[in-house]
Design a protein that fits this description.
Helix content is 43%, strand content 18%. The chain is globular, with a radius of gyration of 20 Å. The protein is of the alpha/beta class.
């Protein structure tokens, strides 16, 4: 495809961490990067202008949800998702595989694709690799993800073998239907459950097909954090050094730092936005549950080290008041802060890598959190 390129700018000498840059038709993405999740064509509670202000260079939108409502053909008719949602920077669309996985009994997987019932109205649908790519192209996605099956944990090895092999065949079908010369990049997704040999097999077979970038799927699905890190540590080095590496659906600030150390370039997760709406805020010293009574008359900013709009203008007492009063502004301000924190964390990681100080950054990151827990 044209218009998409990844440049490796720096490789850390003490870890697998790397600093890079992705070039797309709609702008550059500095990596390591965190993508705010805009499931329904909106990052909940945040204006697109505010997303730019806090440093987001790319967002994620959801194939499954936009297919069901309002429909990819309508969005295409109205000029594509970028115009529809007033966002002129890159958009990555997931394939719908994880959402179908989360439907549980409402879906059935076959070689053809995933048959499922809509969570909205119970209507029946069949999402195939070909339809997934068609939807993503209709949306105008800059980075299209192959359609795959997200494997639950724990799972029987025989199931993992069958599912991983099927996902590889689906990936080939996605590659086959992406038009030659498309402006959209196509990323393969490594599956294999928690089986190292199947992870290796999946990574190798996807590289034989050939993709513009590679992702690790099937993580953060209930496994222990240490196991997730083991999977990253083993799988990420199996992927090409000249392509972006993306760990899907991860995670906490600690997960991001550990993922970067193991060689990941891209992350996405609903954690900063969902936690914000539930009154849980991320800071340089750890998580804060703003509903707690101790903040009722606390006039300090949420995080004295944070320069976001919220921390520059509001007290912890006010944020608690908004949340306990169920004011809409609580979600708006909390989400703004959490996303700013995530973007600032990634910017600081990139700066540390540029300066050759990533190890020191990691040490300081955890040291600040010890103060809160000690």
């Amino acid at each position: 495809m044209s218009g998409f390129k990844y440049a490796l700018l720096q490789q850390d000498s003490d870890s697998q961490a790397r600093r890079g840059r992705i070039y797309t038709q709609r702008g550059e993405i500095d990596t390591p990067a965190f993508m705010p999740v805009g499931t329904l064509g909106t990052v909940k509670g945040v204006l697109p202008e505010a997303l730019k202000e806090i440093g987001a260079q790319i967002i994620l939108a959801n194939t499954y949800h936009l297919y069901l409502r309002p429909g990819h053909k309508l969005i295409q008719q109205l000029g594509g998702l970028h115009k529809f949602m007033h966002w002129d920077r890159p958009i990555l669309t997931d394939s719908g595989g994880f959402q179908v996985f989360s439907l549980g009994e409402l879906r059935k997987i076959t070689e053809e694709g995933a048959a499922f019932q809509s969570h909205i109205d119970g209507s029946k649908h069949l999402l195939t690799p070909e339809l997934s790519v068609e939807i993503q192209l209709a949306l105008g996605s800059d980075i299209v993800m192959v359609f795959d099956e997200c494997i639950p944990h724990p799972a029987e090895r025989s199931y993992v073998v069958d599912s991983t092999n099927r996902s590889t065949r689906w990936a080939q079908r996605c590659r086959d239907v992406l038009p030659k010369g498309s402006q959209s990049a196509l990323f393969g997704i490594v599956q294999g459950g928690m089986e190292l040999d199947l992870r290796k097999q999946s990574a190798e077979q996807l590289q034989e097909i050939g993709f513009e970038g590679y992702a690790l799927g099937g993580l953060s699905v209930g496994e222990e954090t240490s196991l997730m890190y083991d999977m990253m540590e083993y799988s990420l080095p199996l992927l090409p050094t000249d392509r972006p590496r993306y760990v899907m659906g991860v995670g906490t600030p600690e997960n991001l730092l550990e993922g970067v150390a193991r060689g990941c370039d891209m992350f996405d997760c609903v954690m900063p936005t969902r936690n914000a709406r539930n009154g849980v805020l991320f800071t340089s010293f750890g998580k804060v549950s703003i509903k707690q009574a101790q903040y009722r008359d606390d006039e300090r900013p949420l995080d004295p080290d944070c320069q976001c709009y919220v921390c520059r203008n509001y007290s912890r007492a006010y944020l608690r008041h908004l949340y306990t009063s169920k004011e809409i502004l609580a979600s708006v301000l909390n989400t703004h802060h959490n996303l700013y924190y995530y973007q600032q964390l990634m910017a600081e990681i990139r700066q540390a890598l540029e300066n050759g100080k990533f190890t020191e950054f990691c040490r300081d990151f955890y040291k600040k959190r010890e103060v809160l827990t000690s």
